[in-house]
Amino acid sequence: MVNNSGFNVGKKITLILVVWVSNFGFAEQLRVAVASNFIKPMESIVANFEKQSGHRVVVSYGSSGKHYAQIVHGAPFDLFLSADQHKPLELEKKELTIKNSRATYAIGTLVLWSANPSFIDDSSKVLLDQNFQNLAFANPKLAPYGQAALQVLEKLELVESTQNRWVLGENISQTFQFVNSRNAELGFVAASQVFESGVLKSGSAWVIPKEYYQPIKQEMVLLKRAQNNEAAAQLYQFILDTNSQKLIRLYGYQ
After folding, report:
1. Phi-psi region at 60: left, alpha or beta (left = phi > 0; alpha = psi -120 to 50)
2. Strands (DSSP E) along the chain, which ranges?
3. Can you tell me the distance from the alpha carbon of 220 to that of 133, in angstroms, rounded to the nearest whole number?
4. What predicted TM-score, i.e. pTM, was given to this entire model?
């Protein structure tokens, strides 16, 4: 078929289809499970990745323990960013991951934080004095940051004397909300929730010395479902890229 200008309409349609396919044909969607301490940096990483790649990323935030259970029971995730090393390793043992895809993407920093600007004096004094009614931290059975908080209390020999004041969050995000809403005077949170570019955004805080708790090495792993999903492999590499790692450090991670 030829129009009045002499241009073959069939060729024109084919050309349009070729252009359309080259622009959108390789765009994929992937689903990612992410530990709730990593919300802020992940939001920035995803925005940068989607802009550069054209892929769409669907992110679910929550406790690493809950994500682990969901994955074991068949949840359709392609990539899992845990708040610890243990859960990705266990998934690997269960043969639910792509071989050799476990990698440390960040090392977390634990902070004792209060929404009250004058409550914490950048030391353990407020804990030792026990001049508070409620102390919030994530459930140690579900969240690595909760495990780290419990280790701090054990080191300071404060477990028994403070236990009746604990307010346990399902994850680190809920813990932050307890403190931010002042339902708890203070709590153990992730540095990424209260620091940005090395500056405390609000309230008062004590950055817990590293020797008070075991390193929070946060690992990610590609899951079996991502075997043929090029977008998942690209995001995995994007997170480990130098620019993304610089961004991650701005939120208090190592």
Report:
1. beta
2. 29-35, 56-62, 79-81, 103-108, 110-114, 135-138, 166-169, 186-190, 195-196, 199-200, 204-207, 216-222
3. 37
4. 0.77
